[in-house]
Specification:
Radius of gyration: 18 Å
Oligomer: single chain
Low-confidence stretches: 16-20, 22-31
Helix content: over 70%
């Protein structure tokens, strides 16, 4: 199985940046204007994050494990397919959470920022679903072709990992960022993102 291993490693490297959901919140706090409506909005969004962050993190870990173990192409395909589906579901759920929360109250340009974040999260969901389709279509019987296809997917995955870091950042600015940073659920995700960043 040596032929697929370097490519599997490339897939793992593409994930090393991780699909970190609220990196922008790490180490943030303060700036409390006492906007209770905005705090309630932030709580609604933040409370949706830990479960989806865990799902994305577990999917990343599964892909890395499949890549680092010298697995047969069929096993790698199965693991990656499920992981991409889980990521797609997670970003879809986040998009739905931000959509349901509505426009962040008292924030200049809040409606556009919220809509842009929903569009970005739904776009990520669709992109991961597309990667699932691509990995499902790979020929596991032809190791060279499988490795080649996996290399292309790793390249796309690297780009997605970067864009997932920015999907919420435009929304997370100013008062919104401060309100989200106060929420226990967002603090939890930011702490786990920070620990992942130092260990990867």
């Amino acid at each position: 199985m040596e032929g697929t291993n370097p490519v599997n490693k490339k897939l793992a490297v593409a994930l090393s940046g991780g699909a970190v959901l609220v990196l922008a919140l790490t180490g943030c706090g303060g700036g409390d204007d006492g906007n209770k409506e905005l705090d309630a909005w932030a709580k609604q969004v933040c409370d949706a994050l830990p479960a989806q962050d865990s799902k994305v993190d577990a999917a990343n870990a599964a892909i890395k494990k499949a890549a680092s173990d010298n697995n047969a192409p069929a096993d790698v395909q199965k693991t990656d397919s499920q992981a991409f589906q889980d990521m797609s579901d997670a970003y879809k759920a986040l998009g739905t959470a931000v959509q349901k929360a509505g426009t962040p109250p008292g924030v200049e340009g809040g409606e556009k920022k919220q809509k842009d974040a929903v569009t970005a999260l739904n776009g990520l969901s669709a992109s991961y679903a597309d990667l699932k389709t691509k990995v499902d279509a790979l020929d596991v019987k032809d190791q060279a072709k499988f490795a080649e296809g996996l290399a292309d997917i790793a390249t796309e995955l690297g780009k997605l990992s970067q864009s997932s870091n920015t999907a919420l950042q435009n929304l997370e600015q100013g008062d919104v960022k401060a309100a989200m940073a106060k929420q226990d659920s967002c603090k939890k995700v930011a702490a786990s993102a920070s620990s992942r960043a130092t260990t990867s």
